Amino acid sequence: xxxxxxxxxxxxxxxxxxxxxxxxRTAYRWNHRYYPNYSYNSDVPAFSSSASASGGSGSYTYTxxxxxxxxxxxxxxxxxxxxxxxxxxDYGTLTQTTYFVRRAVDAVCGTVYSNVVTITVRTQxxxxxxxxxxxxxYNDDVAAFTSTAPASGGGSSFTYTxxxxxxxxxxxxxxxxxxxxxxxxxxDYGTLTQTTYFVRRAVDATCGTVYSNVITVTVHPQxxxxxxAANQTIxx
Length: 236
Hints:
Blueprint: E1 7-11, E2 17-19, E3 22-23, E4 29-33, E5 37-38, E6 42-44, E7 60-67, E8 79-80, E9 92-94, E10 98-106, E11 110-113, E12 117-121, E13 129-131, E14 134-136, E15 146-149, E16 158-165, E17 177-178, E18 196-204, E19 208-211, E20 215-219
Parallel strand pairs: 5-12, 14-20
Antiparallel strand pairs: 1-4, 2-3, 6-9, 7-8, 7-10, 10-11, 10-12, 13-15, 16-17, 16-18, 18-19, 18-20
């Protein structure tokens, strides 16, 4: 879910130390952009360049870098992104919070960094677990389904819906029907006359949909006493 963008203009006076080991001939200036949070393994939109590096001799080589442990350029572990000598960059998908920076090396005056872009990645969605499979006689009452663990991850704001199917045991595939007014962790369905599959769907407001394990309720065929033959009339 996107949040509001903010733009912050920073400038450094001439001949002031800007970064370790670098004195700029002229001021470096850039825009600071705040990026939103992202779902686990989702694609990060390309980083734009509001302003290129400036000052010094005016000849720069860019390298984009990333770190999962440091938010301070040049401090801690930063990894170069291969073939990233350009003002903008499209990284791809992420599974953990990661920091990005654009390093600019001036051929005469040294190295300077852009602001750091922080991509906050929400934890992976997990549908939780429910219990458990049952075997019933025809038209028996199903024992209430319990919740061993709630859904988790993402933005952690979930809307639950229990669903059932008589033809599919794979959530989201085939025909599944919502059970009305079932927005809760547990559920008591009632009686059944055929084998039925149940699942608890959890929709996260930020990161999407996830499912619990599937509960299979196996229903034995209806009892039938059979028939015998035949009525007779006999003498005493």
